[in-house]
Amino acid sequence: MSDIVAGKVVVVTGAGGGIGRSVALAMAASGARVIVNDIGVSLAGEGGGDGPAQQVVAEIRASGGEAVANTDSVASSQGANQIVQTAIDHFGRIDAIVNNAGNLRDRVFHKMNEEEWRQVIDVHLHGAFFVSRAAAPFFREQESGAFVHMTSTSGLIGNLGQANYAAAKLGVVALSKSIALDMSRYNVRSNCIAPFAWSRMTSSIPSDTPEAQARVEKLKKMEPGKVAPLAVYLASDAAKDVTAQLFAVRANEIMLFSQPRPIRSVHLSEGWTPESIADVAIPSMRKQFYALERSPDVIDWDPI
């Protein structure tokens, strides 16, 4: 058993199953005291109660760890404040946040309605902001802290039928970078992980074509537990110099993703017109254009 986060208090949202559960268990196994947050509903928002969070807490305690369940929603400032306050009330401090809570409302863009859009943005993007913001004053006062945000290649690269999810997950990347910039003076770090793993989220992927079925079978090989070690590391003091980075975990692979930077520029001394842009600028840059690709088109090799 590792002790890399021994004594730290860590909040893991959406920790009732899948990746969040694996992260919560790994944090506890590595010495952390864990707030296991899960609202206890399905991906579609059905159900409720404290079942999943309490079950994970029971697992942690059975293994000799310390954990407390919380069932508040990340989608409101009030709920997020209560999640962090649970850590303060039970353990007296907060050292790391893992923003993992998520939902899906997949729909092709031109058929997506306002409710489907807002529900996903509320949980993923607003949730990451609200929970992070609730922890920020404590991190600032103690001059230490770590944020780990779960993003997705659906936002980084693209995917079909996920405009809401992709927009939220790319927004999380920008949020993480802003947190890293604004709070670096207080020794607070913020990083992202894009996980590849079979979970409640990915189990909703349609598999009604041979191509989709092959993709699902490939995903099933990627265990949620494979994501946890990186999350634990990023929450630890061993990662004190790692911030504003964007990682992905795919089975036994850890990837470092690039971040947007200029790759080509063109200049015209007299300035541009729409016509000169069409005749000169775009032809000059076209070879550097990105293709209309989805995540599985770009990361298309078998998991290791």
Automatic annotation (TrEMBL):
This is NAD(P)-dependent dehydrogenase (Short-subunit alcohol dehydrogenase family). InterPro entries: KR_dom, NAD(P)-bd_dom_sf, Peroxisomal_Beta-Oxidation, Sc_DH/Rdtase_CS, SDR_fam. Residues 8-204 form the Ketoreductase domain. Belongs to the short-chain dehydrogenases/reductases (SDR) family. SMART domains: PKS_KR. It holds the Pfam family adh_short. PROSITE patterns: ADH_SHORT (PS00061). It comes from Pigmentiphaga litoralis.
